[in-house]
Amino acid sequence: MNISEIAKKTGLTAKAIRFYEDKGLITPPERGENSYRYYQERHVDELSLLKQAKDVGFTLEECGELLELFRNPARHSADVKNATMAKISELEQTITKLSAIKETLQSLADACPGDEGADCPIIDHLARGCCHHEKA
Length: 136
What we know:
This protein has six helices and two strands; from the N terminus they run ααββαααα. The protein is an all-alpha fold and 136 residues long. The chain has a two-stranded antiparallel sheet with strand order 1-2.
């Protein structure tokens, strides 16, 4: 199948598919005499895995590791689970940080009068915040 056909099957753009190929993430497709790429079903599987892994937060490097495991018939599911658990832990840390940021922003928004005046605790905090130094 050509790139437009595989793009349709995977939900990826031709540009994304070429990008993944250039990064060495997918098995290089065969090329015809006209130098067009010709993809096989294994490419659909690889690209689908890439897309789904990216959608749930894996980085490109992590996606490459998952693809290596995917291609390895002697893989251990424990390795896949460990990668997934590491991603979950990372996401939990990100959620904690984002929750703290949200609380800070909500506190600042609650303190701001939101009127026609120039006084704004949000701007004051962002301008001086934790890094405010006493003026000499």
